[in-house]
Design brief:
The chain has a single domain (about 1-95), classed as YaeB-like fold. It contains 4 helices and 5 strands. The chain has helices at about 5-25, 25-40, 40-45, 90-95, and strands at about 1-5, 50-55, 55-60, 65-75, 75-85. The protein has a 5-stranded mixed beta sheet with strand order 1-5-4-3-2. β2 (about 50-55) and β3 (about 55-60) form a beta hairpin. α1 packs antiparallel against α2. It is globular and about 40 Å long. The chain starts with a strand and ends with a helix. About 25% of the residues are buried. The mean pLDDT is about 95.
Length: about 100
């Protein structure tokens, strides 16, 4: 399957990178490598995760408390958001409704 990461999801990844980079140098790099690996696995496993909202699937990261929200459109996985699961649930709901 093809894979596309929307601009909003890229911004989420950058925000996560800076959060971890501020806490400990080079953890940000590990964060990005891990999340990109999780996202890349959606080429094979896209569509097996539970739906979080309407047609939006949610895949949990293996190493970090983040969730990847994506849709499947015309045999293409479209990553809409990459969100920290520790955030306020109402904030997450509003964010994915706009994804």
């Amino acid at each position: 399957m093809k894979l596309r990461i929307e601009v909003a999801a890229r911004n989420d990844l950058i925000e996560g990178y800076y959060f971890y980079e501020d806490s400990d140098e080079q953890v940000g790099d590990y964060f990005l490598a891990t999340l990109y690996s999780d996202i890349e696995s959606l080429r094979i496993f896209g569509g097996i995760h539970r739906k979080a909202y309407k047609s939006l699937y949610r895949a949990l990261s293996r190493k970090f408390p983040f969730a990847v929200y994506y849709t499947i459109e015309n045999k293409e996985v479209v990553v809409r958001a990459v969100l920290d699961c520790r955030r306020d649930p109402s904030w997450i709901r509003n964010r994915i409704k706009n994804a």
